[in-house]
Amino acid sequence: MAISENAELEELIRRTTTGADSLPPTGSNASEEDSDGGGSFDIGTLVLVARKSLPWALLLLLLGLTGSWVYLRYTKPVYKATSVLKIDERSDASTIGLGAAAGGAAVEASRSATQLAGEVELIKSGLTYKKLKEAIPLDINYYTQGTVLETELFGTSPFRVKYTISDQAYYNRKFNVTYTSANTYQLTVVLGSEALGGTYKIGQLVKLPGIQLQLLPTASQTVGLSDAEYHFILLDDNTINGYLDKNLTTEILNANANTIQISFQDYNRLKAQRLVNALDSVYRDAKVARKQESTEKALAYLDQQLRETGDSLAKAEDNLKRFVQLNGTWDAKGELSTITERIADITKQREELEQKLVLLNDIERLARQERLTPNDDLTVAQAVPSLAIINDPTLSRQLEELNSLQQDLRRVRRSSQDVTEAVQQRLAQVNFAQGALQRQIQQAQTQLRSAIALLNNQQGQLTGALQALPGKETELERLKRPLELYSATYQNLLEKKVEYNIQNAGTTADFQILSPAYAPDAPISPVRTLVYAIGAAGGLLLSLGLIGARYLMHNTITSVSELERNSKASVLGIIPTYEKERLSVSRMVVDKNPKSSVSEAIRSIRTNLDFISPSNKKRLISVTSTISGEGKTFVTVNLGGIIALSGQRVIILDLDMRKPKVNLAFDAENVRGISTILIDRHKVSECIQHTSIDSLDFISAGPTPPNPSELILHPRFDQMLEELYHTYDVILIDTPPVGLVTDGILIMRKADVPIYIVRANYSRKTFLKNMNRLMRNNQFTRMCTILNDAKAEGSYGYGYGYGYGYGYGYGSYGMGYYEEPAKKPTIGERIKGLFS
Known about the structure:
By secondary structure, the chain is an alpha/beta fold. It contains 25 helices and 21 strands. The chain has three domains: 5-24 and 568-835, Rossmann fold (3-Layer(aba) Sandwich); 83-291, no CATH class; 332-478, no CATH class. An eight-stranded mixed beta sheet has the order 14-21-20-15-19-16-18-17, with helices on both faces. The protein has a six-stranded antiparallel beta sheet with strand order 3-2-10-5-6-7, with no helix packed on it. It has a four-stranded antiparallel beta sheet with strand order 11-12-1-13. This is non-specific protein-tyrosine kinase. It is an enzyme of class 2 (transferase). Belongs to the CpsD/CapB family.
């Protein structure tokens, strides 16, 4: 009966898992079975899978790069402008002698971290945002629509909008502008489900419900406005503040250096630069205004305290002034010392004046004597030796003049008589000088007596004041205490005001722009190199994932190395794919293409068979597989043909009585055959059919019996083989698949060389477990295997060559040894081959 391939595969899996063909293995056999076809890492299989997956890997890599290109094409670039500010607040007042005004380095260091944190908050405060919106019009964004993305026209819009809005619904809505001519445009805005607008002239006031606006031209207006589509959006304060909060970054760059970094991100690089620079200016103005306000408040407080303290000080001064005016003193202790010193000084002065008066009396006495006679030789200067203490310049001059006249008179008298005119003249001059001197002495005596009287009067007053000092001292101290207090406070306030003014005048600028913002040339996102790298990495990871998945899912035999590694049977050889034509059923092709790669491969198998079972004696060769479709019939008929071409007589028996195919390979009928022979309906000679090769015959399976296994166990089967041995050298038996039925096992026990067919890229690795189990359980020591339908690999064919080290291999003979069918693959077949 006919069984489909899927049903066969399911039946094989069931039998493999339940052990339908034999008893469950035990002991060491169980361990060997578990290790058969184990899941160890196979580098060869991985390379094979990777090579077959290479087109898919390249396609996935290309898809990754294409995805990166699409992402870059449809993603707006984000630009980042950055400036660095230095908060360097320090005082230079100490350089002019007011060190306290500077505050000290320790105080400045302790305030640094707190101050920087406060500055960061100030930059991101609503006050700064308000000033920033006044400096830059952020309430209107202008755009132009490109092929894919829209572009913001910051500072380059061909028009500007003036508006007055009363309906908040117009905020954050798109106003489409399309120029119909150089002076007219069409305005459209969708409000709810209603489209508002119309066609207007440039500069015309547009009145819509809840809004009035006017489009005015700018310096950026150019020719060709009608080719572009523009739109603008009105933004409310909350949207603008959210936009600033989202894109503005302020952080402490270096706390030790007191530096702050301000960054802003935007799709427009010029806008990002403009906002950062404007923010720096707004922040600077805010700090200046804050400092001015602080200074004004401090100075106002100092002025108020100075006024109040000044009034109190004035009252205290008035009280002390009245006391001083009334009592004539303001320092009793100091006045005591002063009065004592003055009394001693007056006493000393009076003694000096009295001594001068005595001297003048002596001089006056001498001046009252008679006039000088011719015989007088003594002068007044000689009579008063201590005249220098008088300290009277006029008197001293007159005395010197008198002395000079007397000396001149003495000289003249030595040579002349007294009666001479010269002597008389000089005598008259001396007498006149003596009279003048006398008058001057009298005047000086009067002055000295007046001075002595004045000193006596002063000494009396001081003596009276000295006696009244103790009571005044007590009252004076009471009045001085508030005066000193208010005076010290007033002086301190004045000093503080001076220090504060000096500190503000000597404080350098606490705001420096170390690095102003510039328009960035390259966006920070997306980074083209990184995006392409991610796309390539993604494609590569998907490729590796595909290779890994295909490797893990790879459960078929693809190469002879896998077959050798997972099978305990000897490998007879490998049969390449027959590519001359598609065979609907198995056919013998070695007689039609004797120089093809298939023919050469089967010749290599024939040679390798001679090492296992010599050709000089009769041989029974069984060919089986795990399931149908693995090519056992194809191998059987073509191996029989090759052996027959070597001169041996070969007969092929089709024992796959459930699905006979040998007769189809030779285009023969299946009316009689093995089944009719075993039931003695026909003789062997009646069922033998001849082929195009003289030494090759075959017997078809015959009609399908209900009990194929029982027929094979019938003694008639052995009799048939004995009968055939008399005529043929080699008996080739096409057995049923051993993975589905047990008929093949019965035949393999009788065979000299049991051959197990494995089809490349079709037979599963688990099938080899079945084959290894058959070898162990049935002691098939001569079990051989053939890899069928293998794809060509490299210039010499199939890995190891047809012999694989066992015998005949065509690799040493070069490419020209056999002739392949001249069939040029189509483009579709080539593409299919890449992805197969």
